[in-house]
Amino acid sequence: MEKLLEKFTDKYLVMKNNMKNLIKVLSLVFLFGACDSNESTDKKIEDFKSLKLIDRIEPPNWWAGMKTLELQLLVYGAGINDLVPRINNSNIELKSINKTENPNYLFLDILISENSNPDNVEIDFYRDDILVDRYNFELKKREENAKNIEGFTTSDVMYLITPDRFANGDLSNDDIEEMRERPDRNNSFGLHGGDIQGVINNLDYIKEMGFTTVWLNPVLENNMERASYHGYSTTDYYKIDPRFGTNELFKELGLKSKEMGIKLVMDMIPNHCGSFHWFFTDPPMLNWFNNQNEFKQTSHRRETVQDIYASEIDKKEHADGWFVETMPDLNQKNPIVSKYLIQNAIWWTEFAGLAGIRVDTYPYSDKDFMTDWTYALMNEYPNYNIVGEEWADTPTIISYWQRGKVNHDGYVSYLPTLMDFPLQMAFNESLTDGFRYGMGFRKPYRSLASDFLYPDPNNLLVFPDNHDMARFFTQVNKDIDLFKMGIVFYATIRGIPQFYYGTEILMSPDEKRPGNHGLVRTEFPGGWPDHIKNAFTGENLTDEELEIQSFFKKLLNWRKNNNVIHNGKLIQFAPKDEVYSYFRILDDKMVWVILNRNNSSKILKTERFTELISEKKFAYDLLNDNRISILDDIIVEKKSALILEIE
Ligand code: CA
Predict the structure, then answer these.
(1) Among this protein's residues, is 144 annotated catalytic?
(2) Cα separations (Å) of 459 from 101, 299, 399, 428, 626?
(3) Which of 92, 213, 317, 484 could form a disulfide bond with 156, CB atoms 3.0-4.6 angstroms apart?
(4) Tens of pLDDT along 317-343?
C-alpha cells in the first residue's frame, strides 16, 4: 500500500510538472502576442526571465583555469528542449546540443578555453529566433593554490561526524516547512537538529583534541520521508540540506577549517540517489537509472567483481540492483550520467576547498565508471585523497581497488585509499577473543602480514568503528583497558586513523542493542542547549570519560608531530603469550608499541628484540611519563599498552 501511494505521489508530481509547463507555454504565447516590436530587447528578456523557463543548469557555474575544460551542462525546465541555446563569448564555446526522450532536458557540451578568465558567460536561449531566457554561467576565479590542495595523509587523524547528531549550532533550521520530515529528538531515527554551524562552532575543540581532518556523513539535500538525518539518499546533488545549512555555510566550514589546519572530507554517493530526487521523479532518459527506473534489489554479492568464476547474471544482479527501494541505482554506464557525477565531485571539491572525499558503497558502482571518476579527480588535484568503502574481510578483495594494483583481470583503479575493514575486524575480534590457538592477536598479526597485496599499505584508513557498526566501547564490552589498548593500536599502526565522534568520551549508547544505527549515532553531549553533560567543556562528564578524553588528547597531539608514526617503517613481532609488539622506525627515531591482553602482567625479555634495539638502553614510556631501562626485562601490566620512544 505504502509503495502504491509513493508511486501515485510520483506520478502526481510529474503531472503537476506538466501542468506547470503548459502554463509557462501559454504565458509565452500570450507574451509573444503582447510584445510590441519596438519594445527593447532588455525589456523582453526581463519579461521572459520572470517566466523562468530554465529551472536549473548543472553544474551552475565553473572556474577559470581548471584542467577539466570539456563540460556537460544539464539544462532543466518545462518543455525546454526545443529552445536553441547560443553562447557568444571567447571563454566558452558551445560544441553540441543533445536532446533526450524527455522534453524537459537539454544537455549542452561546452568547451572552456585553456586561457579562460573569470567571467559571466551569458547562455541565451532562443525559440523561433526570439530570445526567451538567459542564464549567467559564471566562470569563477579559483582560490589561490586550489589545484595543489593537499589531501588527507598518514600525518592526519580523521574525526568522523554525523552532522545531525554532533551539535545544533542553529536552532532556526531544525524544522523546515518545505521538507518532508519533521524533527523528532525522541526518535533515534528522527531528525535531531545538528548542523554545519554546530561543526563550525566546535572546530577549536576538534583541533585541541588533536584531530586534523573532519569527515562529515553526507550533507547534501536529503528530502526523504523517513530517517533523512543520515543523509545517504541525496535529492539534490548541488545543494546542501537546509536542515544542515546552505552551500555558502559549507564553504565557510571549508575555509575556517583550513585556517585552523583542519582538512575537510566530503562523503559522496555516486552509486545511488534518493527516490525523491527531482530527476528520479522526472528522469532525463529511460536508462538514467539501472533496471529501467524500476526497483530491483542488489544481491549484495560484491565478490562477483573479482570472482573469476562469476556468472553474468550474478555480476548484473550485484552491480545493477538497487541498494534499497528508496535509493535508485544510477546507470553510470550511460556516459551522460557518468559525466554528470564526475563534474559534481569536482565542483564540490573546488567550491568548498575539500581535502578529500569518502566514497560510499564503492563496489556497488560500475567499476569502469569509478576508474573514470577517481581519475578525473586525481588528475585535477594531484595531491588529493579519496577513500573508498568496500566492506570486505580480506585484503585480497580490498587491495583490488587500490591505485597501482596489478589485477588478474587487468582492472585499473585510481582510488588512493581504502577503509581497512579486514584489520578492523581482525583486531577488534582479537581483543575479546579466547586464548586458544589461532585466536587473539594472531588475527591482526596475520592481517598485517597480508599487506604485500597492497600497492600502498600506508594509504589505508584504520578505525575501531564508524557510523555503521556498534560503538567501539560496546564492541569491547565496556572494558576500559581493552578500549585504551585499541585506541593506542589504531593511533600508532600504519595507515590513517579515523575515530567516530564521541569515541573520545567512551560513548556507547548502543550497549543494549549493539550496532543499532539510530542509537550509535546519538547526540554528542553539549551539542544541544538542554544537555546536562557537555563534552566540549567537560561539564558533568564522569571521571572515566574525562580520563579517556585527556588520553585521546595526549595521544593524538603526540602523534601530530611524529613523522615516525606517519611514515615510519613497520616491523612486527609475532605475538607470544598474547603479548604483541611492533616498531615504527624512521631515520634515527624508533617507537616500540607493546600490547598485553592477558589478565595478568607479563615480563617481556628484550633479548628477542636485539635486531632492532641491541645498542639501546633506555626508552621513554609515553603513556606513563616515565623513563625506563630496556636492557633486560620490560613489565607490561595486564590488559595494557605501552608506547616506548627508544632513546
Ligand atoms: Ca539546527
Answers:
(1) no
(2) 44, 29, 11, 20, 32
(3) 213
(4) 998 888 888 999 999 999 999 999 999
